[in-house]
Each structure stands twice: as C-alpha cells, then as structure tokens.
Write a structure and sequence with these properties.
This protein is of the alpha+beta class. The protein folds into 2 domains: about 5-55, Arc Repressor Mutant, subunit A (Orthogonal Bundle), CATH 1.10.10.10; about 60-140, Lrp/AsnC effector binding domain/regulation of amino acid metabolism (RAM) domain (Alpha-Beta Plaits, 2-Layer Sandwich). The chain has helices at about 5-15, 20-30, 35-45, 80-90, 115-125; strands at about 65-75, 95-100, 105-110, 130-140. A 4-stranded antiparallel β-sheet has the order 2-3-1-4. Strand 2 (about 95-100) and strand 3 (about 105-110) form a beta hairpin. Helix 2 crosses helix 3 (about 35-45). The longest helix has 13 residues, at about 35-45. The two termini are about 25 Å apart.
C-alpha cells in the first residue's frame, strides 16, 4: 500500500493520540470527516493499523525490572532458530526480540517483577533445551528515551534542505 503525506500524518497523530475524535483528526489533517474516515478504514483493513491500545505505566502498578539479553544459540540450523523463537513466543516476559547479525544471534527485552524473577526465567530457558548457548544480561537502571518506533516522519515525502 502506498501512503501519502496525509496518511502518514493520520498515523503520526494516532500513534500519540489514539483517543482523538474522528472529527478532530479530520480537522488536524485538513480533510472532511468522511474522507478522513475512509482513509482510516483503509489503513485498518490493509493492516497498517494493527490495533488501538493504551500506554500503561507498569511501574505505577508495582515493581518492574527491564533487562536486555544478548543471546547466542549453539547451532545455526533453521530448525534450531525456529525452536528458540517458538519458545520465546510462549514467554510473556520477553516483550521484544530481534534476530541480529554480528557476533550474537538475538537481542531480547524482558519485563520482570524483579531480578530474581528474571534469573528464575533464565534458569528455565537454560534447562528447556532450546539451544541457548551463551547469554549476556544488561539491567536497565533508568529509561532515557522511549518512543513509538519508528518515527513516522521517515516515511513522509522528501525532506527539504
């Protein structure tokens, strides 16, 4: 699907203001409510908009530790990668996972109640026979920047210099 600058603007607004009224959204992107609604439905139907949700401050609900882990798996056969990835899909504390090139195979982001809960989970992963060979843990001491990714401006038309 090709997106124009108005589609990008609609998405950028919704990314930060998901509860905006359709009338206000139409006004902000300089469209009639009907035209804006049609674009919005097309973005939903094509899967560009996957859903709507609330940004919840988990730290307000109780203790929270964010931990990043670099992972190397023991064997690099397709079925080994698949087995590892299937196990991570079943692990709710793994909130993000990227397969990467370079000296490691994956970068994982965990959200756990505390470090003890993280270590218990790591122990379970190590005994699950999913090919986890080596890992490195990085505990987040404070968030510096959190933003929707990627910034939608990279999809807008050519920038003027």
């Amino acid at each position: 699907m090709r997106l124009d600058d108005r589609d990008i603007c609609i998405l950028a607004i919704l990314q930060t203001e998901g509860r905006i009224s359709k009338t206000e959204l139409a006004t902000r992107v300089n469209l009639s409510p009907t035209a804006c609604w049609e674009r919005l439905k097309k973005l939903e139907e094509t899967g560009v908009i996957q859903g709507y949700g609330a940004h919840i401050s988990l730290s307000k609900l109780g203790p929270l530790s964010i931990i990043f882990m670099e992972v190397e798996i023991g064997s690099h056969l397709r079925e080994d990668f698949d087995r590892f990835e299937r196990e991570l899909e079943k692990t709710p504390e793994v909130v993000e996972c990227w397969a990467v090139g370079g000296g490691i195979d994956y970068i994982l982001k965990f959200a756990c109640k505390d470090i003890n809960a993280y270590q218990k989970l790591v122990d379970e992963l190590l005994t699950a026979e999913i090919g986890l060979k080596r890992y490195y843990t990085y505990v987040v001491t404070k968030p510096v920047k959190e933003a929707p990714t990627p910034p939608l401006a990279i999809y807008a038309g050519p920038s003027e210099k």
